[in-house]
Specification:
Layout lengths: L16 H34 L5 H32 L2 H24 L5 H29 L5 H29 L3 H18 L15 H14 L1 H17 L5 H8 L3 H25 L6 H21 L3 H28 L6 H53 L1 H5 L10 H18 L1
């Protein structure tokens, strides 16, 4: 008789080596890219004010245009990026995107060191980053469901959010302090970290999506991803709620204005403020990784977006640095609850063969809310001032939430994360277990 011990099933995603590598790669890449993006905004605003003689309102509007420059490639390439994540090895797609961002960071480091940085160059590099990010998002989002058991996916999403938010705290903060020492240094560090992230992603076992039973033309597959999202009202409600609420409520685009001209705390203060929402989000994500939400998840998501809007209003009205940072922490905590619930619902209610395409559409909505939100904030700031634009956006986020709760009652009714679509193997196992249970009862 064999006495070999049975391999115990993991009780936490951290117990899975591939997930640990995935987590670290995500942490490194997010910290590096956010440091780069935040400083691109600060450098653009500073050059516009000092070299071009722009007023505060004109500089704020320029930040909105910078967000638009990042969004246009996302808009154009989203269908291709989603199809790529569903057709090819998701590790390779993510690694190539990281290497592209590495190149951008390297150019920024050299141009900053050589003092040859210009506004057109910054806009071009921002657009290139948008093109790289559109491929990174769907591939990385779709990897986690393939390397952890389905029952651990909500915890994996929470832990992945900790990586994202923790890096969002450290990346801009470290970048701001390094920028104060030598302007080129944070960009050089970002380039090195992005290479490390690419190597970590490639060390994960190969990850490819389930394929359709019959080969289909790529364009048809892209259209099918959009049609699936449109027909699934539940998914559509989750995705569009984030799109419109954050589009109106985005305060981060105005942070360079607050740092330089309202709170007068410079690049060091900008790094702290940019990392503050992520600090609140990371704390909430850590709690949910330990104690995942299980009941009334739809109502909690809607209430969290309302909290996001209230914190945004309070930040816009503040002229005290400590209170402003506290409101940004609260803003990030509220947003994390919404992001965690929405991400879990989207991933668990999407078949694996379409996860890349649906994740790309979700990523487009998130990017639209961020980049177009920056554009909206810039336009509003031109008429209302930076503080007025932030307050206006917070009110708008609350109004959108109330409207969405009425238009999409499915969101209010969502009780748990119960998946609608299961991978064929897991679905077959579930049916077999149900049949066994039925036979025992009879």
């Amino acid at each position: 008789m064999s006495t070999a011990p049975l391999t115990a099933e993991p009780t936490s995603p951290i117990a899975i080596p591939d997930f640990r590598r995935f987590w670290l790669a995500r942490f490194i890449a997010v910290g590096a890219t956010l440091s780069m993006v935040v400083l691109i905004g600060y450098q653009a605003y500073d050059i516009a004010r000092s070299d071009y003689g722009y007023s505060r309102s004109e500089g704020a509007f320029l930040l909105g245009l910078l967000g638009l420059a990042q969004f246009i490639p996302l808009l154009l390439l989203t269908p291709v990026a989603g199809w790529t994540a569903d057709r090819f090895d998701r590790r390779v797609v993510a690694a190539c995107a990281n290497i592209s961002d590495c190149t951008i960071a390297g150019v920024l480091a050299y141009a900053t060191w050589a003092d040859t940085l210009t506004l057109p160059m910054l806009f071009a590099l921002a657009a290139m980053h948008g093109a790289a990010r559109v491929f990174l998002g769907p591939s990385m989002s779709a990897i986690a469901p393939n390397i952890v058991p389905l029952r651990l996916l909500p915890r994996a999403i929470a832990l992945s959010s900790i990586a994202w938010q923790g890096a969002s705290v450290l990346g801009p903060a470290v970048g701001g302090f390094l920028f104060a020492e030598a302007h080129w240094l944070p960009h050089a560090l970002s380039a090195a970290l992005l290479v490390c992230s690419a190597l970590l992603v490639l060390s994960i076992r190969p990850v490819r999506a389930e394929q359709d039973a019959e080969p289909k033309h790529p364009i048809r597959q892209m259209v099918e991803g959009a049609q699936f999202t449109w027909r699934q009202r539940f998914l559509l409600g989750c995705i569009t709620l984030d799109l419109f609420a954050v589009l109106l409520g985005g305060a981060t685009a105005m942070l360079p204005v607050f740092a330089r001209d309202i709170l007068m705390v410079g690049p060091e203060g900008l790094g702290i403020m940019r990392g503050a929402p992520a600090l609140g989000a990371a704390a909430v994500a850590a709690w949910m990784a330990w104690r995942p939400l299980e009941n009334d998840v739809g109502k909690k998501m809607l209430l969290a977006v309302v909290g996001f809007g209230l914190a945004t209003i309070a930040f816009g009205l503040s002229t005290n640095f400590a209170f402003s940072v506290a409101m940004l922490v609260l803003l990030g905590a509220s947003d994390m609850i919404s992001v965690f619930i929405r991400s879990s619902l989207v991933q668990l209610n999407t078949p694996d063969r379409m996860r890349g395409r649906v994740s790309a559409i979700s990523g487009l909505a998130i990017s639209a809310s961020n980049e177009l939100g920056e554009m909206q904030s810039g336009l509003a700031a031109a008429f209302l001032g930076a503080a007025g634009a932030v307050v206006f956006g917070g009110v708008g986020a609350i109004v959108v939430t109330v409207i969405w709760a009425a238009i999409f009652p499915e969101l209010r009714r969502a009780k748990t994360f119960a998946p609608e679509f299961l991978p064929p193997r897991i679905e077959a196992e579930a049916r077999l277990d149900a049949a066994k249970e039925l036979s025992r009862e009879s």
